[in-house]
Amino acid sequence: SKEDGRGRWTLYDPSMDDEREMRNQLELDLRAAIERQEIGVAYQPFVRSNNGRIAGVEALARWTREGYGPVSPDVFIPVAESTGLIDLLGMCVLRSACFELRQWPELTLSVNVSPGQFRDPAFVGRVEEILQAADIEPRRLTLELTETYFIQNPARARQTLEMLRGMGIRVALDDFGAGFSSVGYLRQFGFDRVKIDKTLVQDITENQRSAELLHATVALARALDMPVTAEGVETGAQADALRLAGCELLQGYLFGRPSPAEEITRIVRQSYDS
Ligand code: C2E
Ligand code: CA
Ligand code: CA
Ligand code: CA
């Protein structure tokens, strides 16, 4: 046992120290990987629902930890967010993806942005700098954001959103339907696009309730003039249902996994050269 600050005795749990130790090591390794520019980017295609052609790619961060193997973004992104490393990591991903995009003039690019990055007043300027350096038209870039920051800090969020819009950059509401997003938020911020979370797509072909929920969600976004992307599309039946429901863009393993750039080049050729 050991005494806590208020003089009470609590049970000492050695596994807590182990966990803290492992987390510290993970953070150190992640920091080193970012500094050595070892964070990779995978590109996942999204296609137009009406013709199946690739319309763009989403950049997804990848990290192979030395001595361990690939670490899931669901593990290292939260670590990056809680340690402030996300600013650097996010800019590395954005820079790599913008330069990669130069070889695909037909495509647009989506990049995920964490609330912590969006909060930084220098964020907009950095994005602008990267677009200029890579010579990418701002309207080819969509930033994907979740509702968290819009709920926490609506006034500031709106300001940043307006600045990005002023530059021609698009902003999409990511993971829609997975959280608490209300009609109010959608209206208030006027996103350029809504991205329906894969949890809402999962069982639409097996479950009538899920299908109805999906239809209502898509109809809502469309009533507010926001085009809809559906993620997590794994079967042809899902793709058909989503197209009929009014989703303009589809993304999921059915059309392509997150892949290296060469695979995207192959898909672009297949889509546009035939
Ligand atoms: P997200 O933005 O919602 O991205 C979609 C996730 O679903 C990706 O996981 C993708 O690989 C996966 N996915 C795509 N299609 C399918 C499908 O058909 N079925 C299933 N079951 N899954 C599919 P990933 O790459 O592991 O990324 C997880 C999350 O990590 C992302 O969720 C995003 O929130 C975050 N993330 C990844 N890269 C970045 C980044 O560069 N910056 C920030 N801030 N977050 C990132
Ligand atoms: Ca996303
Ligand atoms: Ca999602
Ligand atoms: Ca997400």
TrEMBL record:
Chain coiled-coil ranges: none
Start and end residues of each EAL domain: 23-272
Name of this protein: Bifunctional diguanylate cyclase/phosphodiesterase
